Amino acid sequence: MTNNNDQLYITKVIKGDTNAFAYLVDNYKNMVFSLAFKMTKNREEAEEISQDTFIKAYKNLSNFKGDSKFSTWLYRITYHTSLDAIKKQKNNNNTFEINEITFNQIEAVESIMQGIARKERAKVMDACLQKLPDEQRSLIWMFYYDELSLKEIMDITDLTEANLKVKLHRGRKKLLTIVKENLAPEMIENYGRK
């Protein structure tokens, strides 16, 4: 499943050409940093996680079997390294009570969001995403923004398909609640009428 270029450089590294690893780092450094930053919301922490991820990947490269794409394997390392860093830093859990949301309310919020200009909507959504708990934000980011398949996310997170679907559903519900709470009431009324 790994593309030929990746496999070529992976083979070179395993055979002892340590310089070949620079190709893999260059290819995937933005993906790794982006995920780490989305999970931690901290640039310095994301840089450290990125370094740790590539060190772990280098040390374990011989364990990469090629059953999945190299990017999925690396994403998984980044995800778990980020979770470990978050667990170390967090002493208190953020709890958030989910109000029951009816299907119609979800549809109403979605139609309101469609009425907001693209740039404004992106800004609102990013701010709202940052308010989600780390795991939910990461899962929603992987599925909707990175457009990873359920199978790829399952490989990365070790979640079962049923558990992943439940977590995505809860994350979407919580995100919609946050969006609804953060949009100015007059904005909701305005766009609700259109």
Written account of the structure:
- This protein is mainly alpha-helical.
- It has two domains: 86 residues, Rna Polymerase Sigma Factor, Chain: A (Orthogonal Bundle), CATH 1.10.1740; 91 residues, Up-down Bundle (Butyryl-CoA Dehydrogenase, subunit A, domain 3).
- The longest helix is centred in the last third of the chain and has 22 residues.
- The radius of gyration is 19 Å and the shape is elongated.
- It starts with a helix and ends with a helix.
Quick overview of this protein structure:
The protein has helices spanning 4-14, 21-40, 43-59, 70-89, 103-115, 118-130, 134-145, 150-157, 161-182, 185-193. The chain is mainly alpha-helical and 194 residues long. The protein folds into 2 domains: 4-89, Rna Polymerase Sigma Factor, Chain: A (Orthogonal Bundle), CATH 1.10.1740.10; 103-193, Butyryl-CoA Dehydrogenase, subunit A, domain 3 (Up-down Bundle), CATH 1.20.140.
Q: Spans with pLDDT under 50 lasting ≥5 residues?
A: 91-104, 190-194
Summed over residues and divided by their number, the pLDDT gives a mean of 78
Structural shape: elongated
* Percentage of residues in strands: under 5%
Tell me how many strands there are.
0
The overall number of domains is 2
The CATH top-level class label of the largest domain: Mainly Alpha
Based on secondary structure, the structural category is mainly alpha
Determine the CATH topology of the largest domain: Butyryl-CoA Dehydrogenase, subunit A, domain 3
Helix content: over 70%
Number of helices: 10
Name given to the CATH homologous superfamily of the largest domain: PhyR, sigma-like (SL) domain
The helix-strand sequence is HHHHHHHHHH
Distance between the termini: 47 Å
Sheet with the most strands, sense and barrel status? none
